[in-house]
UniProtKB/TrEMBL annotation:
InterPro entries: aa-tRNA-synth_II/BPL/LPL, HisRS-like_core, HisRS/HisZ. The gene is hisS_2. One of its GO terms (cellular component) is cytoplasm. It comes from Thalassovita gelatinovora (Thalassobius gelatinovorus). It holds the Pfam family tRNA-synt_His. It is an enzyme of class 6 (ligase). This is Histidine--tRNA ligase. The lineage of its organism: Bacteria, Pseudomonadati, Pseudomonadota, Alphaproteobacteria, Rhodobacterales.
Amino acid sequence: MPDKARIRAEAARLRTAFEAEGAQAFETTILQPAEVLLDLYGEEIRARAYVTSDALRGEQMLRPDFTVPVVQAHMTYGAEPARYTYAGEVFRRQEDDLDRANEYVQVGYEVFDRDNPIDSDAEVFSVIKSALGGAGLRAATGDIGILMAAVEGLQTTAARKAALRRHIWHPRRFRALLDRYAGRTPVPATRRALLAAADPFAKGAPEIGLRSRAEIAARITALKADAEAAPISKREVGLLDAILQVRETLPNALERLRDIAVDMPAVSPAVDRLARRMQALDRRGVDVAALDFEASYGRTSMEYYDGFVFGFYAENRPDLPAVATGGRYDALTRVLGQGAEIPAVGGVVRPGLLLELEAGQ
């Protein structure tokens, strides 16, 4: 791993390049309030966050990334449109892999612009790609918005769609829920007995745990309503599976998704956005004919991404994480904007990994 002085110099180079694109330098403290951030980051980051307690300030955490603090600051003080860049250390526990860094430098580029989100997607991707220079990295792209639209279009209950949306970023749970809602997996015997009981509280079992009796009763009522709902059709499950299996170069993926949209019209607006984004990338000089697209890409990363997602990888170093990643996070601005919102997209680069690849060439 390159020494810290070289990493800081490379970070400064990247930040200068982003400032040349019109980005304003952004600074934030290393120690951040934990309560709001832990709710926003999702399980993957929550499990890896360094959290401590302060007698005056409550729970605090070492900064796991910059995006949430940037959004918080922009929604409070920012003008429109806005571009930001930053550089600094982030911290994530690596309890299952001692070879992965738990502290590293991250340099980012974020765009807040409501006039043309499609162009903003293409801008961030191309600016990050240009900053990576001749590192020879493979780019992967995806679009969480297509899968979210597919879930929203299912002919099933609102509660089931909400559960599936909540677990889009957890592929195994998503699959388990989908199979259950489609009637592919049997209802556990304990649940059948619970739902069949005239009075689930009749046996007088001790009430253990934090949930009140009213909360338990509400949960049982929800389970009964779910048990009475018709299963998701085999046809719709097949269309969802077809979307998740799309893995092609971008033009071919677009054609495949257009075919699926004929039978699942709910995804058509999202597929149209993908087509416009491809055109915007082409206008910025990206070789879209060779650009990879995976419909399931991004489902195990930050849970605040809700649209376009991308990453850059060293194919000759599969042991390394992504050198750069990014995506669209419009919903995050709604959460932190307290009623206000603005389309937003950004990406980050790890300068230490860039230098490590350069040293190995």
